[in-house]
Amino acid sequence: MKSYFNVQGSGKFDFIGKTKIFVAASALAVIATLVLVATKGLNYGIDFAGGTEIQVQFNGNVDSAELRKIADNLNLAGSQIQGFPESNEFLIRFQAAQGQTASETNQFLTKAVESVTQSLQSAFTDKNPTIRRVDSVGPQVGDQLKKNSILAAFYCFLIILIYVGLRFDYIYAPGAVICLVHDTLVTLGVLVLLGKEINVQILAAILTIIGYSLNDTIVIFDRVRENLDLHPEKSLPWVLNKSMNEMLGRTIMTSATTLAAVACLFFFADGVIRDFAFAMSIGIIAGSYSTIYVASPIVVLCDRLLNKRKIA
Predict the structure, then answer these.
(1) What is the set of domains in the chain, with CATH numbers?
(2) Cα–Cα distance between 189 and 278 in angstroms, integer?
(3) Mind listing the pLDDT tens digit for each residue in 117-130?
């Protein structure tokens, strides 16, 4: 057992030797995410929850309590107010009345939007309120989007599991997929903790994170395959540690470059683009970390359990 985990001479950093600490930290992060989701719930945007969203911008500071008062006076069902103080913009969400037909529902929606617009113009004449956009999603469409989102993530993980198993070996596939699940849950946990809205843009960010994180994992696995052929006498932990040391510079440079691009989106964009960039930044950091401290330990575990030596 001792010789199997001996990584002396495999590189400057002993990644394998620190895996127990980081695996425990990752497990706690995942558990914390599940507890947050179970207790606090997901803040679904109208894409998934359904409803109507009006984005309004004012030429001056406006108190969200005043907007809340207008929403209450108009009896807007399920109304929510979200502000962006730096740009004097607000999102007003509510559930429009549902009619017997699609045409009747559209009439109710149009009337509700007109009522909100007129009330804002009357209450804030000096602030020149401007309606920037109006989005509306029916509850059935929202439910269908949620279902399709879950299926998209599931099929993504399934295809990756098969791809890694065929390209490398089945002992590597579980590590790659669990690594991606870890990145997804950690990103989701931070978003839930901060009360960020979960919408289609966030889903796109999560799917992008899955692809980005997989790329880093595949690069490490490729180097592992090469080093297994070059050092057939060495144990798998030794080869993994050497491969991660050799690819560390590449991982840092790739992550830093990608983070720089995402940072530009975060600081210079606004609204849903900023949320997308924020989710991406969390995923990039989690993806770089999980390749070393989540995927690799699981590969070692599978190798020990299945008594396998190297990639077929």
Answers:
(1) 16-44+142-306 (1.20.1640.10), 51-137 (3.30.70)
(2) 13
(3) 888 888 888 888 88
